[in-house]
Amino acid sequence: MIFPYQLAWVVAILLLGLLLVVLFEIQRSNYRREHEEMFGTKEFDTKVALYDLTPKEIRTLEKLVRASKFENKDAVLNSSHLFEAAVLDFYEMRDVDTIRDETLDAVTRLRQKLGFDASNPLTVIVSTRQFNIGNRVDLLLDGVSKLKHSEILSQREKIWKVSYDDSFGPGSVYVGKEVRVRWTRPEDAVYSTNVRVFASEPGKLVLRHSQQLDKQQLRRWLREVVNFPVEAVFADGSTCNGVLYDLSAGGILIGLPIECESGKHIRIKFDLPSFGPEDVEIEILRNLGHKNPDYPEYFSTTASFSGAFGWTQERVLQYIFEVNKKKKAKETAQNALTS
């Protein structure tokens, strides 16, 4: 007859034995990964030869491979997503703050040489480490109550720095807090994530990195109907007032009291809600005549952004994103009430 306490001992021994087997297999797998030849080694060597990598970069790439969870050695070269997963495994295993700067710099160069940073329009973005110096971002401070337009000033593996001018108080106020960073990649998506402010410097906030990016495809919201007063400024300095009918990433539909021929370049000024005044050059594409019944006296005209319009384009994209996000939230709330 087996007593309950004896049965408990048997179960405990079996569980302990199972645990030891699992640990042994993990240890053996790790040893094989770190010391034996991995699957895909030949393919790895062939692909590495295609890039102008230094001996240090090749050794660092080997470290990333050995730290990763991939069975195939060449997997880390196949996509930015797999590369960044290997980078994260390496940093978590070694603690990024204790890794030598020359090794970290080698990781940065590898990302650039492999075409896995944001400068490559085809690469998949999964980490803030892929953002580039000069990229314009928005900082949402204290939740979403304070919006600050900013720019990436430096980019390292441990930290990155963005511009900040103390307009919402000294930067030191945000040290240790989380802020939300939002970056628009034209023709792709709006990426946003929460990051912790590591430190502040004159004119800068120093941020930690994140690999938890929220991605909202822009193609869902290419155009938004609006009704904004607009001022048109012509080459001779004359002006007139009109109405902005809709906005998109590449252009607008505008109503003006005068007819403009195709190809004409003018400047328009308008206020974009939550983002402030815009002053941008446009090129007239087509005059549609008196099309809008709400403004029968205006000529409806299509136009595209021209000149240096990147900053305006990004803010227009973010505005469209925010408007549609609020619409979706409102529809969800209404559906919840009626269901």
Description:
The structure is a single chain. The protein is an alpha+beta fold. The strands form 2 sheets. The chain has a 6-stranded antiparallel barrel. Strands 8-9-10-13-12-11 form a 6-stranded antiparallel β-barrel. A hairpin with a 3-residue loop joins strand 11 and strand 12. It is elongated and about 90 Å long. The N and C termini lie far apart (59 Å). 28% of the residues are buried. The mean pLDDT is 85.
N-to-C order of helices and strands: HHHHHEEEEEEEEEEEEEH
If helices are DSSP runs of H or I spanning 4 or more residues, what is the number of helices? 6
Over all CA atoms, what is the radius of gyration? Answer: 27 Å
Q: Major sheet: order of its strands?
A: 1-2-3-6-5-4
Percent strand: 25-35%
**Uncertain stretches:** none
Based on Cα principal axes, name the global outline. elongated
Category by helix and strand content: alpha+beta
Largest sheet geometry: 6 strands, antiparallel, barrel
State the share of residues found in helices, binned by percent.
25-40%
Mean pLDDT: 85
The N- and C-terminal alpha carbons lie at a distance of: 59 Å
Tally of extended strands? Answer: 13
